[in-house]
Design goal:
Elements: H1 2-28, H2 35-56, H3 63-77, H4 79-85, H5 92-115, H6 126-142, H7 149-162, H8 177-200, E1 204-205, E2 208-209, H9 218-233, H10 235-252, E3 256-259, E4 262-265, H11 273-286, H12 292-297
Antiparallel strand pairs: 1-2, 3-4
Helix pairs in contact: 1-2, 1-8, 2-3, 2-4, 3-5, 4-5, 6-7, 7-8, 9-10, 9-11, 10-11
């Protein structure tokens, strides 16, 4: 009993670290559509911390109640990636109702067990189990090619361990407290690593910190903000921006292209007439996800405020 309580205290400490990292993330990504995702992550961490505290105090001894509580935590843990997938302005605000609906649908078997079949464990449909697995994997793949890959990998591994009872082919026996503690530890380390990277590892291109640079140089004006957005929202939306920018560039004959690793081309081009159009197009695409203040913080605005 004492050993189990110690394990749940470890889970509580890990949840506190994760919640603090998510709260810091809300500040770090301010001005972008990733703020709701960070807020959902903080809520999920707090919910798991409450579960761990309840278990550490000797509660949730009933396996059915424990399963219902864990399924509710699992539902909230899927919300951050769902929020990221809907992170395009202006509909990203309304999208949060869809995210909340997802959480409600995932929690529905737990609510049914409590209200309709008291004392029974949640009956999770196989399709719902596969949906949960897909969302967990999408979260990892979205950041796999970014510098957040290691942090995302730790979080996804820990999340899969915590949700293993509800994933396809998951175990039937009650989860081990120390296994949950290890899972929570992985998530906490991943969340802390992502936060530290944001503070201590500025966006770089070609080995140099990307600054405001020349106000007429698309690479200097757009490179830093795009890479920062890539690290914030991941591959899904970054590749969409690349696709739209390159389509316009090809249509208008600009000697430049945008790639997943930043802006390319146009160096030494004597005709600078296209540069202003390229900068305006890039900014317009970025503004679907961030505010003007966010762009200024990431050197998207020129020194003269243009």
């Amino acid at each position: 009993m004492v050993v189990e309580s110690q394990a749940w205290l470890v889970c509580l400490a890990a949840a506190a670290v994760t919640a603090a990292a998510a709260a810091a993330g809300c500040f770090l990504v301010r001005g972008s559509t990733a703020v709701p995702a960070a807020a959902w992550a903080a809520l999920a961490a707090v919910s798991f911390g409450l579960e761990a505290a309840w278990r550490a105090s000797g509660g949730l001894r009933d396996p059915a109640a424990a399963d219902c509580c864990r399924l509710a935590v699992a539902a909230l843990s899927l919300c951050p990636i769902m929020a990221v997938l809907g992170g395009k302005r202006p509909q990203h605000g309304v999208w949060q109702f869809i995210v909340a609906t997802l959480a409600g649908v995932v929690m529905l078997p737990a609510a049914s067990a409590v209200l309709v079949r008291p004392g029974s464990v949640p009956d999770v449909h196989p399709l719902q189990r596969w949906l949960m697995l897909v969302l967990v994997l999408v979260a990892g793949m979205n950041y796999a090619a970014t510098r957040r890959a290691a942090a995302a990998g730790l979080v996804v591994a820990g999340q899969a361990m915590l949700l293993r009872r509800w994933l396809p082919f998951g175990e039937v026996s009650p989860p081990s407290p120390w296994f949950d503690a290890a899972a929570a530890g992985l998530i906490a380390v991943g969340a802390a690593l992502a936060t530290l990277q944001s503070f201590a590892w500025p966006v770089r291109r070609g080995g140099a910190v990307v600054g405001a640079g020349d106000a007429d140089d698309p690479a200097a004006v757009l490179g830093g903000p795009f890479l920062a957005l890539r690290e914030t929202l991941g591959a899904a939306w970054s590749l969409r921006i690349v696709e739209r920018f390159n389509a316009v560039a090809a249509d208008r004959g600009w000697p430049c292209r945008m790639a997943f690793d930043g802006f390319h081309g146009g160096e030494g081009e004597p005709d600078a007439a296209w540069r202003g159009d390229a900068i305006r197009t890039g900014r317009a695409l970025l503004r679907r996800f961030v505010t003007a203040d966010w762009l200024r913080r990431h050197a998207a605005e020129s020194a003269d405020g243009r």
